[in-house]
């Protein structure tokens, strides 16, 4: 497959002001008639030919200006026409089979209903069209189908007409906002709605519907409330008002990603709509709110202003992730949300940036754009915009975003347009900052603080590591929030912002009779790795006393990571290991006892660094050793703080169920205590977990208990897993949890368990949620995936080959775990590589998987 390059972008020679589509809907056969008005684009190089993208389509009729024509050519899957005049009308008919569409792109059948997914290049699987985001058109759609099969017919915009003819009925929809084809959506099925309304800041009354299958209605309240909160928040935080009279959300159970922001008709994975306390965890509730917000915010950052081309994806995704993060921060605990977001970045994006698939947030080339819906484009993209906000300050940043929305409303814009708007609106010079858009790799900043006389001297040095295709990097502006603490009073005289924009820099701070303790990258002000020369005692001090909650968390993480990395590297004697562990336990003990911390935050401060994050700190990692060292520390902390932890548990147990922060914090603590107990006193932990499971009146407690039990031996494991299955049989989202819990468990036989689960009657490769629940959970479980025998790698290799023809997008997402072979010790690395080579040799690979495998081997 050819490589598509950003520098080759050319405007499309034709505009498509209007698109009319008619659908005769059927699960096995849907007829699509399109009528496009096209006119030459004065802003592009003139061309008499127009290329209409198709993917697997055969035209049954083509007309130009009402006359049937055969004067078109097929170039691969695309239909190419030569048009003599300035403006024409093209009419094309196609027929498609949604029921055989297992890729879940274009129009497909899910559970008896029909729905679409067009981003990024799915529309071309429905009809021939210039399927690129810079061609904006006004869509009018008529859809008709059997009334009993498809009682509900939905599309973008507003319904303008409807009617019946015998057993069929039809609806006509018009979307007044010009949009690119990737925002087109249609849904037809037997659905029911939770309805509500929202009055916008200028008095527009908007009808809101959340559409689900009949029995799911009681689980939609949280989604609806989240939607209303999102609409209000976007008005207040960004001045953005909704612009149609109707907003529909539809939940579907077969979906490649989380959700899709189609204009006026968002389509969601059921996972991000359905939630009630019995079946959804606190984490699920938060995720629903975050994703509902994310898709809603796209109405401005994505739909009103879209992307010129797919290289600009971070323009809408990075910005919208930042917007959903800020929304969730405002709805719940700001520091806890910040910690969660940093954890995700470190877990998913840092490994991407240090591996063979590293790419800038605005990539320069791709073969398959679906592979670039990455943590880099999304989460690092959000961090990059967050840095602009930090440097500008909130007020000035808002001026920048106001200007961006004003200047580019109705356009297909670029990342450069965004940066220039922030520059002009916020009054910032972002010339050098643009490097964050073009350079890949996580910068490393080394930090040293010395003390001379009354001065503290801060030395900073940055390096940006080489990444594929980018051997040499330039220094980037890195905004670092810092504070210098006086140990005695445990206070500082104010936070400062230092922007490191050269390779190295020195800063002097006057007025320190004693050497202060440095707190740096507070709030994670820059997405970098900090390598600081700091004593363990100073870290203990920061963990106990820093007034920035993120910095406190970071100090605890740092304490543990240093200890673990030294242990894995064989640098600790038994005595040092024990002493180090005890001092960590002591620091954690202070956190457990601190009355000024709320329990949600306490849970964060207690959490151990992930295996992935520890591995990232090492040149070459041995997953077995890291796992063992991490479990040893967990066990030491668990036994050292046993009494305190159990007291905490007893206190938390008294808090009755509710969705407020206090009760959520209590639930988080309970499972955290169980996890420490599982490492230090498995029998006691099993007993406690079984008790928690039995008493649970909510999914958070039940899942937390079962998570701990699945990692342990014993009869309670078997009993509770069976009970869980029987209790929730038929509830797909909860059965997904049942699969995921077992696949991510610490149990030594996890590989055998996953093999058996793959043969379970409820397992299917046709449903991406189910595939992810078993195999993504497994690929993220170092115990299983990195089994020394290589069986874990083989299982993922087998999966990729079997899934590729069914759902290429989902299959390709399993390649990156194998692609990290260069960072793993040689024996395992060879086994990982072997699987990649086996996949590469397969006779027919999708473009998606081919690209990921070849980049991983290069
Ligand atoms: N913008 C949406 C992207 C998306 C997607 C991309 C490729 C294949 C399937 C997809 N489903 C949704 C999601 C979002 O970021 O909001
Ligand atoms: Zn998005």
UniProtKB/TrEMBL annotation:
Residues 441-531 form the Peptidase M1 alanyl aminopeptidase Ig-like fold domain. Its cofactor is Zn(2+). One of its GO terms (molecular function) is metallopeptidase activity. GO terms for biological process: proteolysis. Keywords: Aminopeptidase, Hydrolase, Metal-binding, Metalloprotease, Protease, Zinc. Pfam families: DUF3458, DUF3458_C, Peptidase_M1, Peptidase_M1_N. Residues 537-858 form the Peptidase M1 alanyl aminopeptidase C-terminal domain. Its EC number is 3.4.11.2. The keyword Membrane does not apply. It catalyses: Release of an N-terminal amino acid, Xaa-|-Yaa- from a peptide, amide or arylamide. Xaa is preferably Ala, but may be most amino acids including Pro (slow action). When a terminal hydrophobic residue is followed by a prolyl residue, the two may be released as an intact Xaa-Pro dipeptide. It comes from the Bacteria. Residues 27-183 form the Aminopeptidase N-like N-terminal domain. Residues 223-433 form the Peptidase M1 membrane alanine aminopeptidase domain. Belongs to the peptidase M1 family. This is Aminopeptidase N.
